[in-house]
């Protein structure tokens, strides 16, 4: 008989519509996992040898959550009972064409690395799956990798949610000492989220910015003084930005340009050369087809050449045909 920490199957929770990309990614990674059972937003795999908690360390970008599968139940109570003694139980469900995390009350405290977490996934009437995972750095602390954060009405775009969701997922800490340069910043959802966190931003985009962020604008980069929260709009395409436009003190590169991953990475490399103090990069990669995730090894190699050591590619609950690419020194 198998120990509870060894299972025959594991399951992945993914954004409905990206199951195919997830399977292709797993295949490309050469993990030896074979497709077993699949529903919208829920894909199970089996392998020649049992899965253990270590199997879940595989960095599968299209999985918002990976769990050892403890099997299927007809009721929620039975599914919770299958988890046995776990300190935390997350609930997830396929509802409204989305794989949603359960958020009954305020966001739970962030788990510590190593904490065991049970997940009960409701796929439809009478179909509940129980799963187990171990919290680790760069894993979402939230049920089904879905923060449930609701966008402020002040935001001029949904990009606000992508920044907030990404920061929560990866546990990023931005401080007033940071200066972010965001390429593709209009109309300003990400900029607003950063300014609200007290982080100054240089935004690069030929397009117009919303009034809500222009209220913090400084006309010249030199006016962006340390210790203040300011926004400087560099109204030109990314390729025309010079070292002088960036000035001193830039610590983060962000991109939300609707350009190919290759163009985004090329600009990331150029900006890192112009601003050697960049310690992190957070990019939304816009894919024409989610299957482009199979090209991730090439993107990682490019980032390693730039000197980044910790690299994560991750689908977020708020994404459609997009992925968040995080790189840190
Ligand atoms: C999805 S929108 C960005 C949303 C924005 N981040 C926000 O928070 O509201 C994409 C933006 O990328 C900009 N863009 C596309 N190519 C660009 C380039 N080469 N340089 C700078 N911006 C670019 C477009 O003008 C557009 O405003």
Automatic annotation (TrEMBL):
A single GO BP: methylation
The UniProt entry, under InterPro entries, shows: RNA_MeTrfase_FtsJ_dom, SAM-dependent_MTases_sf
Domain Ribosomal RNA methyltransferase FtsJ, residue spans: 157-209
Highest taxon of the lineage = Bacteria
- A GO MF term: methyltransferase activity
| Membrane-traversing stretches | none
PANTHER family reported in the protein's UniProt record: RIBOSOMAL RNA LARGE SUBUNIT METHYLTRANSFERASE M, RIBOSOMAL RNA METHYLTRANSFERASE FTSJ DOMAIN-CONTAINING PROTEIN
Q: What is this protein called?
A: Ribosomal RNA methyltransferase FtsJ domain-containing protein
């Amino acid at each position: 008989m198998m120990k509870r920490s060894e299972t025959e199957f594991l399951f992945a929770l993914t954004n409905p519509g990206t199951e195919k990309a997830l399977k292709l990614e797993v295949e490309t990674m050469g993990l030896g996992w074979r497709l077993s059972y699949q529903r919208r937003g829920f894909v199970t795999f089996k392998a020649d040898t049992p899965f253990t908690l270590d199997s879940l360390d595989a960095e599968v970008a299209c999985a918002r959550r990976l769990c050892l599968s403890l099997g299927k139940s007809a009721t929620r109570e039975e599914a919770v009972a299958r988890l046995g003694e776990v300190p935390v139980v997350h609930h997830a469900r396929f509802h409204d064409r989305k794989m949603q995390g359960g958020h009954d009350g305020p966001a739970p405290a962030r788990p510590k690395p190593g904490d065991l977490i049970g997940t009960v996934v409701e796929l439809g009437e009478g179909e509940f799956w129980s799963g187990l995972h171990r919290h680790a750095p760069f894993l979402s602390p939230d049920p089904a990798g879905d923060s449930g954060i609701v966008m402020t009405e002040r935001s001029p775009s949904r990009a606000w949610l992508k920044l907030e969701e990404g920061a929560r997922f990866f546990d990023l800490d931005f401080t007033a000492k940071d200066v972010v340069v965001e390429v593709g910043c209009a109309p300003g959802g990400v900029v607003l989220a950063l300014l609200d966190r007290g982080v100054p931003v240089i935004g690069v985009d030929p397009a117009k910015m919303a009034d809500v962020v222009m209220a913090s604008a400084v006309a010249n980069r030199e006016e962006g003084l340390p210790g203040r929260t300011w926004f400087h709009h560099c109204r030109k395409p990314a390729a025309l930005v010079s070292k002088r436009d960036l000035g001193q003190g830039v610590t983060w590169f962000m991109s939300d340009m609707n350009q190919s991953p290759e163009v985004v990475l090329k600009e990331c490399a150029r900006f890192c050369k112009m601003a050697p103090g960049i310690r992190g990069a957070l990019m939304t990669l816009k894919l024409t087809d989610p299957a482009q995730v199979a090209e991730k090894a090439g993107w990682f190699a490019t980032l390693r050449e730039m000197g980044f050591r910790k690299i994560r590619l991750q689908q977020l609950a708020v994404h459609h045909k997009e992925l968040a690419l995080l790189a840190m020194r």
